[in-house]
Write a structure and sequence with these properties.
Blueprint (H helix, E strand, L loop, with lengths): L1 H6 L4 H15 L9 H12 L6 H15 L3 H16 L8 H13 L24 E4 L2 E8 L4 E5 L2 E4 L8 E4 H6 L13 E3 L1 H4 L2 E2 L15
Antiparallel strand pairs: 1-2, 1-7, 2-3, 3-6, 4-5
């Protein structure tokens, strides 16, 4: 559908309308270019463990933007603070002609090739060992057993502590769950899940939230 839209020479609005039904059913993949300041900001976040990959960063940031969109007052307040911070900046201003000259020189100069984040590595069960971690959709798992065609794993990025009272249910982060011994083996305090051959096709060694692969239920 995307190639058909490009071939038809559709503008952005027309292409969005042409792709909407397919995107509603299966999501949307696209390429994104980030200028150097945004690129280094995201890479620094990944290096500190905030995000697992650029695709996860885009997923999280767009999700936050979607949640913020109905709240015009909050968006206006954020804009006001940004403008106020710029006005309060003690550094001397830069004359407009100097800004334009710098921009012209920048765009006239040869542009270096952008860095490219490598594609996610698919799950290779033949090289997987017990204790290795992998991702299925946006969930991280730890392999606990490997069969002839299946593998068993426990989810480790979050743990839901159940209760008969819904109000008493809570989620633990990986760090909290590890500290409380939820992943001590064996037996595990969390449910083990069996991934068959079809489930494994949607798994990878890196996080990729744009892949909405179904996660099998507890065994």
């Amino acid at each position: 559908m995307g190639d058909e839209a490009d071939a038809a020479g559709l503008n952005a609005a027309e292409q969005a309308r042409a792709l909407r039904a397919q995107a509603e059913a299966g999501g949307l993949r696209f390429e994104a270019y980030l200028p150097s300041d945004l690129a280094t900001w995201i890479l620094d976040k990944i290096a500190r463990g905030v995000f697992a990959s650029p695709s996860e960063a885009v997923f999280v940031i767009l999700d936050e933007q979607q949640e913020l969109e109905p709240h015009a007052d909050l968006r206006q307040e954020a804009l006001r603070r940004t403008l106020q911070a710029a006005m309060d900046d003690p550094r001397p201003g830069i004359p407009a002609d100097e800004v334009m000259r710098t921009l012209r020189e920048k765009f006239a100069a040869p542009q270096p090739e952008p860095a490219v984040w490598p594609p996610r590595r698919p799950l290779d069960r033949s090289s997987l060992t017990i204790g290795d971690t992998f991702w299925c959709s946006d969930q991280q798992w730890c392999c606990t057993d490997i069969g002839t065609r299946t593998l068993t794993a426990i989810r480790i990025d979050a743990v839901e502590v159940g209760s008969t009272d819904p109000a008493s249910r809570r989620f633990l982060t990986r760090t909290e769950a590890e500290a409380e011994g939820w992943f001590n083996r064996p037996p595990y305090a969390v449910a083990e899940v069996v991934f068959d051959e079809y489930d494994q096709e949607g798994c990878s060694l890196e996080s990729d939230p744009s892949t909405d692969a179904p996660v099998p239920g507890p065994s």
